[in-house]
């Protein structure tokens, strides 16, 4: 399904590589703005489809609605999700009617996967990490929402991000999909009102600070792991 959703080549989020030190991360990004980190992890071995199905196929995964509040939850076996429910986003379907696996994990069952995960090398003082594993189809995503700081790494596929600072609330409908927002609202935004945005590829990690608004759009079938700092 690669190429189902067109990619925007422009990237307005600052990038950094493995030469970024912890002190510079704290000084420049941790409390002020997002950054894309490249070359700081290597988790490419985690995305092998056959191994994941063999290890976790019968385990239940909790699907959430792909809208801002994600109130509705549905439990299905991981294998059923991958083989039958992992499909491209229906453009006509609301986010509140779309089920999406983006990290409601049972940490006892999924512990072996997280133990193999190499996390980003940075932390925020006074926080501890909680990991979240997800797989989603082309065109899917979560509309704008905010929470505490964290990292999100793309393991497989491509994932487009849109971000606004805490003092700049985006215009969106909480039950509309990110794909619908991109098609209908985004083109009407003047340049000064557009979000920071970028497309992440495998091995790249996005850091977002506390309370930053963000929305995601998977350009391909994507595998990703997030680290929430609470």
Automatic annotation (TrEMBL):
Domain annotation JmjC: ranges: 96-230
GO cellular component entries: nucleus
Gene3D superfamilies xrefs: Cupin
Gene from which the chain derives: Jmjd8
MF terms in GO: cis-regulatory region sequence-specific DNA binding
UniProt cross-references to PANTHER family, sorted A to Z: ARGININE DEMETHYLASE AND LYSYL-HYDROXYLASE JMJD, JMJC DOMAIN-CONTAINING PROTEIN 8
The name this protein goes by in its record: JMJD8 protein
InterPro entries, alphabetized: Cupin_8, JmjC_dom, JMJD6_ArgDemeth/LysHydrox
């Amino acid at each position: 399904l690669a190429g189902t959703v067109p990619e925007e080549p422009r990237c307005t989020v600052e990038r950094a590589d493995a030469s970024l030190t912890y002190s510079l991360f704290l000084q420049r990004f941790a409390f002020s703005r997002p950054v894309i980190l490249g070359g700081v992890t290597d988790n490419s071995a985690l995305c092998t489809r056959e191994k994941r199905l063999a290890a976790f196929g019968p385990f239940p995964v909790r699907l959430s609605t792909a809208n801002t509040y994600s109130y509705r939850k549905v439990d299905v076996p991981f294998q059923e999700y991958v083989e039958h429910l992992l499909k491209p986003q229906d453009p006509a379907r609301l986010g509140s009617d779309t089920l999406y696996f983006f990290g409601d994990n049972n940490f006892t069952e999924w512990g072996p996967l997280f133990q193999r995960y190499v996390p980003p090398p940075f932390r925020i003082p006074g926080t501890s990490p909680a990991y979240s594993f997800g797989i989603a189809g082309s065109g899917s995503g979560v509309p704008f929402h905010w929470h505490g700081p964290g990292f999100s790494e793309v393991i497989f596929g491509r994932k487009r991000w849109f971000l606004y600072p805490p003092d700049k609330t985006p215009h969106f409908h909480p039950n509309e999909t990110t794909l619908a927002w991109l098609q209908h609202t985004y083109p009407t935004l003047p340049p000064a009102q557009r979000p920071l945005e970028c497309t992440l590829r495998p091995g790249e990690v996005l850091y977002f600070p506390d309370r930053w608004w963000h929305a995601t759009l998977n350009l391909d079938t994507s595998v990703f792991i997030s680290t929430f700092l609470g």
